[in-house]
Amino acid sequence: MTPFLRKLLGLNWLLLANMLALAIFGVVAIYSATYMREDSVAAEFWHKQANWVAVGFCAFMITSLIDYHWIRWGALPMYLAGLFFLILTKFIGSKVYGARSWLHLGPLNFQPAQLAVVAGIMVLALFLSQFRQMHPMLRLLLCGAIVGAPTLLILMQPDLGECIIWIPVLMALLFTAGLPLRYLVCIILIGLAFIPIAIHLGLKPYQQQRITAFINPDIDKQGASWAINQSLIAIGSGGWSGKGFKAPNTQIELGFLPATAVHNDYIFSAIGEQWGFVGGVLLIGAFALLLLTCLFVAFFAGDQFGFLLVIGVTALIFTHIFQNVGMTISMLPITGVPLPLISYSGSFVLMIMFGLGIVNSVWVHRKFAT
Predict the structure, then answer these.
(1) Tens digits of residue pLDDT in 148-195
(2) What is the β-pairing status of strands 94-96 and 99-105?
(3) In whole angstroms, what is the distance from residue 239 CA to residue 277 CA?
(4) How do residues 43-77 score in pLDDT, each as one tens digit?
(5) Surface-to-core class of residue 3, CB atoms within 10 Å of its CB (0-12 exposed, 13-18 middle, 19+ buried)
């Protein structure tokens, strides 16, 4: 048996099948949330998403079959490329929902922040695995510098949602890398102490309004609280089994959910209305299986480098799921974070599938780790 065939047969097929099932369901959900719109661009959302899923699947397969140790040479160039694109976005990026976060390069339209996060995970995993004997405080400071550079550039856009993503990802990596617990507790306490200052001094007025709407949804029902209230109505009206695929007279069709974001930030609201409680639970269950599969891979990783890579990708996916679902059911403030593999966001689908390809590579090459 050739090495290529042995690797192909050794793929984590549960991870692959689960990822594909979620991605295909995402295309169906996007179609169901946008089919009623008359403009030609909206009608192509599901088609563009399907194309990105196909590209992402190719990236997943290629990354799965290549030894993940290539990241030792590829992490830093990807990280620097992410920083370069973030700087470029500051000057020539496109504004979406008040944030200059999208970059157009010819036919490509993507968010550099997503590339920066994935590349940052790769650099952090490499650094933490290579310098295990370094003093914990120095490791913490250098990790802060690695995360701080892209975070500051993302804050300048400003894209609060992508900045928040860094917090649980970094904490998960530091904890699993063996940083003393007292350091992590101090970080958490300092972070909690700075929250009121950050809200009043660091956020734009519309971001402060989102916080206010989260705390008191009744304060401005026709303004800042409109989207979250309509999201709750949509999910609640779905009941047990939902109103059905492409059901008429829904919050989606009537335009109560924001038409510009229902296929992206509020896709879970659309799923809750059309597929009901059962559909929402099955979707969350599929995500739980995906995350558990990733943790299973981490448990059997051949070295700490592979272990940290998988933990970073798992934390990234979990944080996106938690934030997106949490904001649509009013458990968290609205931050504009997409739902992995489900929301319409081409470059994000590609990055998630690339990250899952790294996870699969750790599984395939677990017996050959050095």
Answers:
(1) 888 888 887 777 778 888 889 999 999 998 888 888 888 888 877 777
(2) antiparallel
(3) 6
(4) 678 888 899 999 999 999 999 999 898 888 888 99
(5) exposed
